[in-house]
Design goal:
The protein is of the alpha+beta class. It has helices at 20-26, 41-52, and strands at residues 13-16, 30-35, 56-62, 68-71, 74-77, 82-88. The chain has one domain: RRM (RNA recognition motif) domain (Alpha-Beta Plaits, 2-Layer Sandwich), CATH 3.30.70. It has two helices and six strands. It comes from Candidatus Synechococcus spongiarum LMB bulk15M. One of the early assembly proteins it binds 23S rRNA. One of the proteins that surrounds the polypeptide exit tunnel on the outside of the ribosome. Forms the main docking site for trigger factor binding to the ribosome.
Length: 101
């Protein structure tokens, strides 16, 4: 585990990614999260296992290129985003959507 997140694994995972592609992955026990760009795969695995009490089999990460944005004459870039696709063991699930009664 990297030194940067040793005591604060809750800061690794920012939010779940809810897109059509990510929702299809849930059928295959794969969940997508936006994570801190400095987080390594062991950090992400430990954070998910600790937060949701599940067994993580694999972690795939991707760093898409930053998007350029322009507002009037000012140009800049959007914040850096790192996505992680986490594959869980058979029988484990993460409840992302609350049950409606």
């Amino acid at each position: 585990m990297a030194k940067s997140f040793a005591g604060r694994l809750a800061d690794v995972v920012r939010e779940p990614v809810i897109t059509e592609k990510a929702t299809r992955g849930m059928d295959r026990n794969q969940y997508t999260f936006a994570v801190d760009p400095r987080a390594a795969k062991p950090d992400i695995k430990a954070a998910i296992e600790q937060m949701f009490d599940v067994k993580v089999i694999g972690v795939s990460t991707m760093n898409p290129p930053r998007r350029k944005r322009r507002v009037g004459r000012f140009s800049g870039e959007r914040a850096q985003v790192k996505k992680a696709v986490v594959r869980l063991a058979e029988g484990d699930t993460i409840q992302l959507f609350p049950e409606s009664s």
